[in-house]
Design brief:
Helices cover 41% and strands 23% of the residues. The chain is of the alpha/beta class. The protein has 3 domains: 80 residues, Winged helix-like DNA-binding domain superfamily/Winged helix DNA-binding domain (Arc Repressor Mutant, subunit A); 95 residues, D-Maltodextrin-Binding Protein, domain 2, CATH 3.40.190.10; 102 residues, D-Maltodextrin-Binding Protein, domain 2. The strands form 3 sheets. Strands 3, 4, 5, 6, 9, 10 and 11 form a 7-stranded mixed sheet that branches. A two-stranded antiparallel sheet has the order 1-2. Strand 7, helix 7 and strand 8 form a beta-alpha-beta unit.
Length: 292
Amino acid sequence: MNDLDPAWLRSFAAIARAGSVTRAAQQVHRTQSAVSTHLQHLEAAVGARLVERSTRALALTAQGLAFLPHAQALLRAQDEAHAAVRPAREAQTLRLGFSEYFMPARLAELLGVLQGALPQQAAGAVRLELLLASSAALQRHWAQGEADLVVVTAQAPPAGAKLLRREPLAWVAASGLALPPGQPVPLVLLGSECPVREIALAALARSGRAHRQQLLCTGSQAAIAAIRAGWGVGCLNQAALAPGLASSAALDLEVLTRTDPKRWPSPGRLSFYLLARPSAQPLARALTAWAR
């Protein structure tokens, strides 16, 4: 019995799919003469004519049609044998970072969008690492090559960044918080690297309103909790207010910019910027479409 070279089988299967030696050669990355030689060797080995040659195209003979599923099964068995001893491919890791101000109430939906954006064949071979942090920390991760995609807030666009969305900012406080006229406004803000803090303080400076730092927080969720507990007035973007933050149980949040726009006009708008490396472009495209 003559052994069947897998290269012959691959060329034969390609001819069956393509219907010509030229196209089959392109599929298996061989020359036309090599594919023709493979077919000749295979026919000699099995002792049968597998392909009928005509001036227009190639067609499988009855023997060729009968042999084709066996050839395909042999090729699958060879691939499975290789896979059985090949080291498992290490999963690719994509490191994603998002500003704490970016769609906090829709985080579950965002994760679904990211999962759906992975190519189906790569879904099991890609692992996502998610970080929610300040924009300053995320930009440091990006600069140090420790992130593949980040969404940050900034007064000016970071180098290479794409504008993702803009949201209006609003002054907020616990419902019923006493704010006596003429007294400095007690503020609940984040640290000096926070763009929201910069915008809020700039707006107060323009209006000439006296203020004092009542509480300094290291994260937006801590600031929201402090505002709801009545520590002072804070500044939040639209997505951080809805849904559910403007009304809840004991101490509801009052959106001062909505209830008293003359005294508390919007401090401005918050810009979100997207930075993504080539490996994360499918996620970046899905995120851009979703965030509009």
